[in-house]
Amino acid sequence: MADDGSAQSTTVWPMPKFHFSVKWADATMSFQEVSGLDTETQVIEYRHGDSAVFSTIKMPGIAKFGNITMKKGVFKSDNKFWDWYSQIKMNTIKRIPITISLLDESGNPTMVWTLKNAWPTKITGTDLKSDGNEVAIETIEIAHEGLEIANS
């Protein structure tokens, strides 16, 4: 018998992705879009010379974390991206933890991604069009050194 939805179950429906929050160090910021929450383990191939099998074995190697891309509207007198980016000097940058939370209908976190030692690697300002009818959006790309995932 199919579930008609009359008795809502927390295990029947997947979470929608449009209700989320982003916390930078101690401040909460609003974003339109967050992408790049991925990780990958490089493959090490090895074969010793006297192996009877004429193929390599594959072992897990170094973990890699993709950069996170965040997009938000441009607001008057809001230069948080540029202020942080301007702190980059030769081999020094202020690194902060960033927490991204997927929220349930009550606003409680259900899945939380925490970026370790995050810092801005790229900022893209908005495009400008004289005949455009869109909101001005700026983008920041964040490099980080680890991704922890927690479920509530």
Task: Please render the helix and strand layout as text.
Layout: E1 20-24, E2 27-29, E3 33-35, E4 39-46, E5 57-65, E6 68-73, H1 80-85, E7 96-103, E8 109-124, E9 137-143, E10 147-151
Antiparallel strand pairs: 1-2, 1-7, 3-6, 4-5, 6-9, 7-8, 8-9, 8-10
Report on this structure.
- It is built from 1 helix and 10 strands; from the N terminus they run E-E-E-E-E-E-H-E-E-E-E.
- With 152 residues, it is mainly beta.
- It has a domain at 20-38 and 67-151: Pnp Oxidase, Chain A, CATH 2.30.110.20.
- The strands form 2 sheets. Strands 1, 2, 3, 6, 7, 8, 9 and 10 form an 8-stranded antiparallel β-sheet that branches.
- A hairpin with a 2-residue loop joins strand 1 and strand 2.
- The protein starts with 19 loop residues before the first strand and ends with a strand.
- The model has no long low-confidence stretch (mean pLDDT 89).
So what's the CATH class of one domain? Answer: Mainly Beta
Query: Helical residue percent?
Result: under 10%
Structural class: mainly beta
Please report the distance between the alpha carbons of the first and last residues: 30 Å
How does the overall form come out from the CA principal axes?
extended
Order of helices and strands: EEEEEEHEEEE
The Cα radius of gyration reads: 21 Å
CATH superfamily of one domain: Hcp1-like
Bin the strand percentage. Answer: over 45%
Largest sheet: 8 strands, antiparallel
Q: Could you tell me the CATH topology label of one domain.
A: Pnp Oxidase, Chain A
Nearest-integer average pLDDT: 89
Can you name the CATH architecture of one domain?
Roll
**Sequence stretches where pLDDT stays below 50 over 5 or more residues:** none
Write down how many β-strands occur, each being a DSSP E stretch of 2 or more residues. Answer: 10
- Count every helix, treating DSSP H or I runs of 4 or more residues as helices: 1
